[in-house]
Amino acid sequence: MLGTDFILDALVKESIDHLFMVPGGLIDPFLPALARYPSLKPIIAAQEGGAAYMADGYARASQKLGVALCIGGPGLMNAVTAVATAQTDGSPLLLLSGEASTAIEGLGMFQDASSQTLDDVSILKSVTHFSTSISNPKNLHHLFSHAMIHLLTEPKGPVHLSIPEDAQLAKVNVTYQPIDADLKDARVLSFDSARQTLSHFIKGPHGEAPIKVVILAGAGIEHSNGAKNLLTFAERFHFPVATTLRAKGIFPEDHLLSLGVFGYAGTHHSRMAILDSPPDLLLILGSGLNERDTMNWTLQLKPGNAICVNLNTLAMGNHLTGSSIVGDASAYLSWLIEMTDQIQPSLAITQEARQKWLQNIKSKPRLQDPENCNSNAVPLHPARIISEFRHIYPRDGILLIDSGAHRAFAGHYWDSYEPLTYISATNLGPMGWAIPAAIGVQCAKPNKKVAVITGDGCMHMNGIEIATAARYQLPIIFIVINNAAFGNVWLRANKEGKVPGELTSLPDMDWAAFSKSLGGNGITVTQPKDLMKAYMQALENKGPTVIDIKADKHFMTPVEDWEHACAAWSYHE
């Protein structure tokens, strides 16, 4: 088979059914090859960055891998931010870029970005787990296998392969064998370290069994499909659960044991349980312990009071955690569940006291300014926009959140009930990510409702991909909280004077008309009473719908706890 066919055949064998791309001369051989693989549907994006964001969304929703195909040079450069986003969030994105034939590298061929010119491979090395060029068609088989291992084994992340035209058209005499399932789901765990933590559940820092036990669950639970183990473990021992913003949804937020999100845009309940009166034992499972996961580093982890489980040793090594376990968070929970007979007796003694402690926390307000959810303000309040959509949106519907002030409003006021129903690029946080990423999510989950909460600043950056959603008649709902500003930036800049405020303001665009011009549906909302009608119509529409909601940029984001933590913290203390 040809090199192109080898690659496409491999993707089909790994159960991939969509590929996101922008055609161009350096990948022309893939076009007829795609016709030979009808089970692999190509989605043509408006721009290469959009294609890569789509592949990222597909990877997150499918829990497989996402594939983007583009030319090297300008095409690849457009995709760099998307690849970096996948790297920071641990998303398995495969970027395939076409390149000039090896025989003519460096001779001045149009768009040559090989190692003899711009060197695409080197550009991608710092934002991928693996970046290489198929410098010889004989390398294609094993280098592609290397790429798949990096993509599909923990810790996951993006990979880049540059494929010169001669490798695309070369005859390949081997066939691809899918990566062994045991490698994909290795469930690595240091049992020696795990055994040493058993004493934490039996005796607290003062010799008694711990009463106040809190679980802080991060993205590692999602990566390891550990939500079911998390729920079982928490319910068995009556341990309350807070999640990081990146992991929102891995524990149902209407559960009696839910504390909501801890960190940026988090709840008062999580702050009270973790910071106000530090727990006897804090289990940190799969969190990167970054700024937002640790409430601007105010979370103090002391020996004897914390157990931290992560595959990333650097994340744990940067913090004093007391007990650090190199391993898969779900594997650790599974092991603890097996250890029930050893830890249940002492925890049963403290369960009544633990319930009273939790009831005291839950008796207090969970959210900041909850009355805003019923605000009749005109222009509209973002809390009203988000909470009203939650009332009508299916429990298992998937929501993607973009970067901006709306991220804080959604993180705080939106309740998520199932894993992978709240998806956001929370680490690098590129504006406009969610718009194309939702296309990948809808392709991965065609029978699910998919919606996006975004802003007008994000629409300026990647709104053109509405055309892609319209082209393929994907019924995605795009809620644009249109406040005529770069929201979060404006809230800071406006305090500095007239000119900073003007520089961070935007013209009030008609995004509903924009969507219609691209083949989608468009609705404009200016009054709170019209929200529900717009949402109901969008849920029934065929193809994408943009709901342009005129919002007020003056409303402060619900990050009061976060701001207090930032004000209290110093690197030197």
CATH 2nd-level architecture of the largest domain: 3-Layer(aba) Sandwich
Strand element count: 18
The general outline is: globular
Which CATH class of the largest domain is shown?
A: Alpha Beta
Outline the low-pLDDT stretches.
none
Helix content: 40-55%
In DSSP terms, counting alpha (H) and pi (I) runs of 4 or more, how many helices? Answer: 26
* Sheet with the most strands: spatial strand order: 2-1-3-4-6-5
Main pleated-sheet profile: 6 strands, parallel
Structural class: alpha/beta
On the 0 to 100 scale, the average pLDDT is: 94
Total domains, how many? Answer: 3
Strand content: 15-25%
Q: Write out the CATH superfamily name of the largest domain.
A: Thiamin diphosphate (ThDP)-binding fold, Pyr/PP domains
CATH topology of the largest domain: Rossmann fold
CA-to-CA gap between the ends? 63 Å
Give the C-alpha Rg: 25 Å
Describe the structure in brief.
The protein is α/β, with parallel strands linked by helices and 573 residues long. It is built from 26 helices and 18 strands.
Secondary structure layout:
Blueprint: H1 3-13, E1 18-21, H2 30-35, E2 41-44, H3 48-62, E3 66-71, H4 74-89, E4 93-99, H5 120-125, E5 130-133, H6 140-152, E6 159-164, H7 165-169, H8 181-184, H9 191-196, H10 198-202, E7 213-217, H11 219-223, H12 227-237, E8 241-243, E9 258-261, H13 268-276, E10 281-285, E11 306-310, H14 313-317, E12 323-326, H15 329-338, H16 340-362, H17 382-392, E13 398-401, H18 405-413, E14 422-424, H19 434-444, E15 450-455, H20 456-462, H21 466-471, E16 477-482, H22 487-493, H23 498-503, H24 511-517, E17 521-525, H25 531-540, E18 545-550, H26 560-568
Parallel strand pairs: 1-2, 1-3, 3-4, 4-6, 5-6, 7-8, 7-10, 8-9, 10-11, 11-12, 13-14, 13-15, 15-16, 16-18, 17-18
